[in-house]
Every structure is written in C-alpha cells, then in structure tokens.
C-alpha cells in the first residue's frame, strides 16, 4: 500500500489503484463514473504534472462513509485573462508589496473536486450520513494531509473545494466556519430532455418558430461535414489535429486550472467503452472539429471540444456540436444534458438553462486569506442574455 498515512478518521492514497476493493463495495459509488476507478485512473495516469490524492473518510467503526478526489495544481495569476484580470492585478500588487506572492513561482492550489469537469464530481458522501458533519471532517482531513510536510516537496498556497450546486449550500456552507470564502463562478448550462422526444424531429417540434428555423439553418450549413466516431484505435490518426483544435478553444477561456491531455481519451474509451463518446467532424477529409462527452447514469455530460474557427461560421460547427449532443442524449434515452460552462448564451438558445455553482477557497496563511476576502467578494459570473427556445419553458430547479 502506498497511502500517505492513516489518521483516526481518514485514509489517504496516492494512487487510485491502491484503494482496496472492499472500500468501493462499502461506498457503493462506482455506478457514478466520476467515482469509478476506471475513470479516475484514466485521468491520473495521463496527467503526471498534477499530484493526485484520494481521501476515504471513516466512521468510528472504521467503515468508509465518504470519498474525495484531490489534485494539487499550479495556478499562475498571469493566466487570468477574463473580467477578473483587474481584481487579480490588485491582488498581485498588494501581495508582492507584502512579500506574499513571488512573480516566479505559481500558486500551488490543493483542489477538492474535478479539475477538468464542472459540477459536483469530487466528493461522494453515503446517503445515510450527516453531510454537514462529513464536510467538516473533509476540511480537517485536507489540512491534515498538507500539514504532513513529508508528503510534499513544495508549499501549498491555498485550498479549494469546487462546484457546489444551490441545493448543497446548506451543507457546504459549513466550510465558512473554517475561514473559507465562497463565490459563484460561471454557471453550468443544463438542459432537461423531454421523455416524449423520440428523435431530433421531436426536439425541433417543441421549439418556437424562430429557434426551430435557426436550428434547421445550422444543420443545413453543417451538411457538408462528415461525422466520424473516434476511439482508442483511430485516435493516433487524428491526435495532432485534435490537440491544435483543443488549444483553439482552451486559449479563449478566461483561465484554466489545468490543461487536459488528449491522450486521456484512449484510456477513457478503453475503460468506459460506449459510455464515453468522441465524435470528429471532417470537411473534405480534414478534421475541423471534435466533441467529447460522458454518459453517466441518466446524464450526458459534455466534456472538451475542439474547433477550427476558420470554418466555424460558414459551417456552423459549434452549433452542430450542440445539436449533436442533444441528439446523442435523445438516442440514449437520457434525462439531462450538462453542457458545462462558457458560451452560456448560445447554449441557452438550444434549450439549456443556468445552474449556479459555488466555489470555496482559502489561503493557507491567515493574513493573505484576510486580504483575499476583500477581492473574492467582488467576483461575479459574467451576465448573459438567457434565451427561452421552447414553446413550454421548463426551468432547471435550483432557487
């Protein structure tokens, strides 16, 4: 076993393969693929630049009651290029004047959650547990991990627990007692899939005329595109192009906690089979776009996409991807699509609605944590013009 050490209420593991089978059996969480060792190993094995840890919380009888994934990522303040840039500039100015921020070194952020996917995919708590108590124990276990200096050859700058939905705040707000600060980030864009939709035509029929016409025009413009399935067998053929297409999209993001290694797709397809979808878009034999998604329980979760923006407008590449996500969900009789963050307005035009997400953050040291509180309170999601394309509007339940 390679786990860090046993504390009275937690076991720490540095490799997902080291977690014993009896723990997975006791937790009963592996039907959710985000807490399945096949998924977790695919992510960890292809991102050696990130330190991965796994925490299993135990009750007094030493039975597992919760599981959390942890990543230690490098965060450079200079990487922030969105509306937070002004706030970050003030933080850098004050932090460097006080000697708290080095211009050469990145922040080491210990993240409890999924670095590469938005949503509550980092903490699993058994349903029979007091979730407020478990969150407190988790916060303590994270500090215990960091305080064992032998485990790290660097200093942790801050702690982050990410992506709690509105309904979870009565649980996650327990973190405020431990000097965490909360703020909202860009919302998840969610779409409910009507159980009466048997095919894409049914989806179009449910739309108001203006949006139905827009969808049909996008499908017509994208007609010259050939769609292909990408898997572990043909990924190498398209890998170089996919990396460039992914960079085109990721470079437009305000900031990223980590860069996704597309080699991960091989393991995801090998380990998850048809539950992981990768679709390419060819124009005259040239790959100009791709989408990826995971089928998890009754949801379709959109993951990374890549686009050659030179062709995007003429061939409606991104719009076609959004409609293809919807088609995939309908064909698989799924209940909900999680389109993720970014491009909120265009996602709302195909039927998605926002689900607020809250992040909790604290600096390891008291003084910079106090300073951060003034700036974190200023963070707000970017407003957008919400569209309502359906004849009968179905809200995402949250407020």
UniProtKB/TrEMBL annotation:
The organism's place on the tree of life at top rank: Bacteria
Protein name stated in the entry: GNAT family N-acetyltransferase
Lineage, highest ranks first: Bacteria, Pseudomonadati, Bacteroidota, Flavobacteriia, Flavobacteriales
């Amino acid at each position: 076993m390679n786990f860090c050490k046993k504390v009275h209420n937690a076991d720490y593991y540095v490799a997902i393969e080291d977690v014993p089978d009896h723990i997975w059996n006791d937790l009963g969480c592996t039907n959710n693929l985000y807490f399945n060792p096949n998924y977790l190993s695919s992510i960890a094995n292809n991102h050696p630049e990130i330190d991965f840890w796994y925490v299993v919380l135990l009750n007094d009888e030493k039975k597992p009651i919760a599981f959390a994934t942890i990543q230690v990522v490098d965060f450079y303040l200079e990487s922030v290029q969105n509306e937070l840039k002004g706030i970050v500039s003030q933080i850098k100015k004050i932090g460097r004047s006080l000697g708290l921020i080095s211009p050469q070194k990145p922040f080491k952020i210990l993240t409890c959650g999924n670095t590469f996917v938005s949503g509550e995919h980092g903490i699993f708590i058994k349903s029979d547990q007091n979730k407020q108590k478990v969150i407190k124990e988790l916060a303590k276990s994270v500090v215990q991990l960091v305080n064992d200096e032998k485990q790290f050859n660097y200093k942790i700058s801050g702690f982050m627990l990410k992506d709690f939905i509105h309904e979870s705040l009565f649980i996650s707000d327990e973190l405020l007692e431990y000097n965490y600060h909360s703020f909202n980030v860009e919302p998840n864009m969610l779409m409910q899939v009507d159980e009466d939709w048997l095919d894409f035509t049914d989806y179009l029929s449910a739309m108001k005329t203006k949006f139905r016409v827009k969808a049909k025009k996008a499908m017509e413009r994208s007609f010259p595109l050939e769609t292909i399935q990408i898997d572990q067998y043909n990924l190498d053929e398209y890998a170089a192009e996919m990396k460039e297409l992914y960079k085109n999209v990721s470079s437009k993001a305000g900031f990223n906690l980590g860069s996704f290694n597309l080699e991960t797709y091989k393991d995801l397809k090998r380990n998850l089979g048809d539950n992981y979808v990768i679709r390419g878009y060819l124009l005259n034999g040239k790959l100009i776009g791709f989408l990826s998604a995971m089928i998890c329980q009754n949801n379709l979760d959109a993951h990374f996409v890549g686009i050659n923006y030179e062709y995007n407008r003429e061939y409606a590449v991104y719009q076609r991807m959004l409609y293809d996500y919807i088609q995939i969900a309908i064909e698989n009789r799924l209940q909900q699509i999680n389109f993720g963050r970014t491009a909120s307005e265009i996602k709302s035009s195909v039927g998605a609605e926002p689900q607020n997400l809250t992040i909790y953050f604290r600096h390891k040291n008291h003084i910079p944590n106090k300073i951060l509180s003034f700036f974190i309170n200023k963070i707000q999601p970017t407003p957008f013009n919400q569209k309502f394309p359906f004849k009968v509007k179905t809200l995402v339940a949250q407020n």
